[in-house]
Amino acid sequence: MPYRIGFDLDGVLALTPEAIYPLAHERGWLLDRAHDEQTAHNLEDAFPHGIAYEQVQALFEDDFFLDIPPCGWLTKTFRNLHARGHEIHIVTARKKQTSETTRAWLLAHNLHPDSLTFTDAEHKADLAVRLKLDFFIEDHPETALACAKARIPTFLIHTSYRQQNITHKSLATVHPQSLPLWCLYRASLSALLIKENYAPLLASLLDEPSC
Predict the structure, then answer these.
(1) How many CB atoms lie within 10 A of CB 68?
(2) What angle do CA 84, 89, 92 make, to 5 degrees?
(3) Taking Cα atoms as reference points, which of 133, 157, 162, 159 lies closest to residue 147?
(4) Fewer Cβ within 10 Å of end Cβ, the chain: N or C?
């Protein structure tokens, strides 16, 4: 049975937080900071005395989105799922003006989603419901929780800015460096109580039969 699976882009498929800091340093901003010190999703909230919202937006020049490195294990998961017939839908909070460079980046990394939608972060959960997603993969804690509350089993990617202790019966936090991918999903299975028959999805992710 094919699933409809949603992926966030920045902080999930694209290592955007890591890419921002070298560019900020070039401009003389956040010189004593690194991405693993970021304790809030938005830079201006994490370092209110170090960078302003307008400066953050200035970092997101069009070419910036072409040069972001991909997250290897999640882009591999994306391609693995798609090759096995699952629908993949990217839902991003990027501005729609970045559409051309975003699509070019996806193409460059051999990522071919069934749909790509630009929306505000606060509307992602509503859009995930309208897309009838079976699962969602997200790095923003509040967005992940909103999707979970909308009865969409959600995987929250562990990051330095996921400081809140967020729990929900359909939310599971996964750490990209803690365990092999199969183990992550198998360990998270007990947290996702509102869906049935996960075996086909897990099998489609399987690279190693055991861990």
Answers:
(1) 21
(2) 145
(3) 133
(4) N
Asked if 102 and 179 sit in the same domain, the reply is yes
Number of domain units in the chain: 2
Residue 150's nearest CA partner among 122, 177, 173, 179 is 122
Place of tokens 């051999």: 110
- The mean pLDDT value for 199-204 works out to 48
Burial class (CB in 10 A: 0-12, 13-18, 19+), 5: buried
Tell me the per-residue pLDDT of 34-74, one tens digit each, with 9 for 90 and over: 877 887 778 888 888 888 888 888 888 768 899 999 988 88
Alpha-carbon gap, residue 52 to 55, rounded angstroms: 5
d(CA 45, CA 48) in angstroms, rounded, equals 5
Q: Are residues 39 and 116 in the same domain?
A: no
Name residues whose C-beta falls within 8 Å of residue 99's C-beta, 6 or more positions apart in sequence: 116, 118
Listed residue (15, 132, 135) closest to 73, CA to CA: 15
